[in-house]
């Protein structure tokens, strides 16, 4: 087994396993190790760093609570209580344990603390531009004089060094039918973590699912989990899982995270994702001329949209639709008198993958033609079903002139991902996290 590791952060500790015999067992062991590392990374990323108990400066027990660092800009207090009669308080912090003159308020959005007040969970965001690494202490201060500390806890350097990675808590999956449970976090723009996930496995075609809209629908996208493939959900009980948006869904608007039964179009449970939380690529801009090549008009499998040439080897599709239900559909370019002619080339999708196309709803896509062809040397562009040699919809390429040889298309900062695994694209790849993706091949010799 030959392993290749792609590491974006030189500080990331990564190891590759090399095996020369008993491939089947070795591969199973290797996948198990990768999955264990992935689960461990979730725990490290989401486990709050414990600071300690608030210690009141006045009457014992008047202020209490166990303080944690949630991430570089957030603080969490468990079982908080404020019972200091006659005084209003505010949460506060400072950079020096010997001088409180630099103390500042950490706002809650609800005004001062008024006695008696208690809450099992308090989550606070630090003021803009402030991180926990700058703090020496955290506490509760007098609302009328923030330098007057009523209770505090020291934030030690080793606690800050263990602060979790930046995550965004999305919400709790709704409890109800099918035994759903779990806390959903966003780790980066394509990766969710579901902590304590439970599901009874009774629906015959259930997937992790994301998409745009107020409620889940068939126009969304299935997600990978576990071994990095799109697969039906089995019964799971209190498991921590990594869920990745597939390449077809990356760059689209995401406003919900759901468990979706695809065969019956049933929403088993979902939570909303705040609008704009997952960024989408900016629209392509270029000073080069944009030439309209043609229109996909109500083809098979709802294929439709406008096709433009931005440069010799760059196409743009706007308002593109495809229902994603056909086997083996790809973008296709042909040279010849008809769309059935040869030679022909599979055109990678907007992520650079040549795997079968997923579903698209009103999408803008940027496609790059293979090196050996340009818009000047092809006669047809289509959405083509490879197994059955059928064109769902095609356009004839007109004579195109005055195009730039190259054009710069703005994109989001790339995140290393694995392609969707299918029987037609057997790629051995495991995405451990935002920084590390591992892939390997089996050498028959």
Task: Describe it.
- The chain has 445 residues and is mainly beta.
- It has two helices and 29 strands.
- It has helices spanning 23-46, 157-161, and strands at residues 2-7, 49-53, 55-56, 63-71, 74-82, 88-94, 104-105, 113-114, 117-125, 137-142, 145-154, 168-172, 181-188, 191-199, 206-211, 221-225, 236-245, 256-261, 266-272, 291-296, 304-311, 314-322, 329-334, 344-347, 360-368, 380-385, 390-396, 429-431, 436-441.
- An eight-stranded antiparallel sheet has the order 12-13-14-17-16-15-18-19, with helices on one face. Strands 3, 6, 7, 8, 10 and 11 form a six-stranded antiparallel sheet that branches.
- Strand 26 and strand 27 (390-396) form a beta hairpin.
- The longest helix has 24 residues, at 23-46.
- The relative contact order is 0.12.
- The model is unreliable at 1-41 and 409-426 (pLDDT under 50).
For this entry, give a set of tags:
445 residues, six-stranded antiparallel beta sheet, 2 helices, 7% helix
Mean pLDDT: 78
Which structural class do you get from the secondary structure elements? Answer: mainly beta
CA radius of gyration is 27 Å
Helix content: under 10%
Number of helices: 2
* Strands side by side in the biggest sheet: 12-13-14-17-16-15-18-19
Q: Proportion of β residues? A: 35-45%
Identify the overall geometry. Answer: elongated
Would you kindly provide a brief summary of this structure?
By secondary structure, the chain is mainly beta. It is 7% helix and 42% strand.
Secondary structure: elements and pairs:
Layout: E1 2-7, H1 23-46, E2 49-53, E3 55-56, E4 63-71, E5 74-82, E6 88-94, E7 104-105, E8 113-114, E9 117-125, E10 137-142, E11 145-154, H2 157-161, E12 168-172, E13 181-188, E14 191-199, E15 206-211, E16 221-225, E17 236-245, E18 256-261, E19 266-272, E20 291-296, E21 304-311, E22 314-322, E23 329-334, E24 344-347, E25 360-368, E26 380-385, E27 390-396, E28 429-431, E29 436-441
Antiparallel strand pairs: 1-29, 2-4, 3-11, 4-5, 5-9, 6-7, 6-8, 6-10, 10-11, 12-13, 13-14, 14-17, 15-16, 15-18, 16-17, 18-19, 20-21, 21-22, 22-25, 23-24, 23-26, 26-27, 28-29
């Amino acid at each position: 087994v030959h392993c290749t590791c792609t590491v974006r952060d030189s500080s990331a500790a990564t190891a590759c396993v090399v095996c020369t015999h008993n491939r089947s067992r070795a591969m199973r062991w290797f996948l198990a190790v990768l999955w264990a590392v992935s689960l461990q990374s979730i725990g490290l990323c989401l486990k709050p760093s414990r600071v300690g108990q608030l210690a009141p400066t006045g009457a014992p027990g008047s202020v209490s609570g166990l303080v944690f660092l949630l991430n570089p800009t957030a603080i969490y207090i468990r079982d908080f209580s404020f019972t200091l009669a006659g005084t209003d308080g505010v949460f506060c912090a400072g950079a020096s344990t010997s001088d409180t003159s630099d103390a500042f308020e950490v706002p809650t959005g609800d005004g001062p603390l008024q006695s008696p007040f208690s809450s099992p969970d308090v989550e606070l965001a630090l003021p803009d531009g402030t991180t926990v690494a700058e703090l020496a202490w955290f506490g509760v201060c007098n609302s009328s004089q923030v330098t007057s500390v009523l209770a505090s806890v020291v934030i030690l350097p080793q606690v800050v060094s263990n602060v979790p990675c930046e995550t965004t808590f999305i919400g709790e999956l709704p409890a109800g039918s099918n035994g759903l449970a779990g806390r959903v976090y966003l780790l980066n723009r394509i990766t969710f973590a579901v902590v304590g996930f439970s599901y009874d496995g009774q629906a015959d075609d259930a997937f992790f699912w994301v998409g745009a809209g107020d409620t889940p629908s068939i126009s969304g996208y299935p997600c990978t989990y576990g071994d990095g493939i799109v697969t039906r959900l089995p019964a799971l009980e209190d498991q921590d899982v990594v869920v990745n948006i597939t390449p077809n869904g990356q760059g689209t608007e995401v406003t919900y995270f759901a468990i979706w039964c695809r065969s019956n179009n049933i929403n088993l449970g979902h939570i909303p994702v705040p609008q704009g939380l997952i960024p989408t690529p900016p629209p392509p801009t270029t000073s080069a001329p944009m030439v309209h090549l043609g229109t996909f008009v109500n083809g098979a499998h709802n294929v439709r949209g406008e096709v433009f040439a931005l440069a010799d080897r760059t196409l743009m599709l706007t308002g593109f639709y495809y229902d994603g239900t056909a086997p083996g559909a790809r973008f296709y370019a042909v040279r010849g008198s008809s769309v059935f002619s040869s030679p022909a080339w599979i055109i990678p999708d907007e992520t650079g993958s040549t795997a079968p196309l997923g579903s698209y709803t009103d999408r803008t896509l940027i496609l790059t033609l293979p090196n050996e062809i340009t818009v000047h040397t092809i006669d047809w562009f289509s959405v083509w079903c490879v197994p059955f040699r059928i064109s769902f919809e095609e356009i004839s390429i007109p004579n195109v002139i005055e195009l730039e040889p190259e054009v710069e298309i703005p994109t989001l900062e790339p995140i290393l991902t694995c392609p969707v695994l299918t029987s037609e694209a057997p790629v051995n790849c495991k995405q451990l996290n935002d920084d590390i993706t591992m892939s390997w091949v089996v050498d028959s010799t």
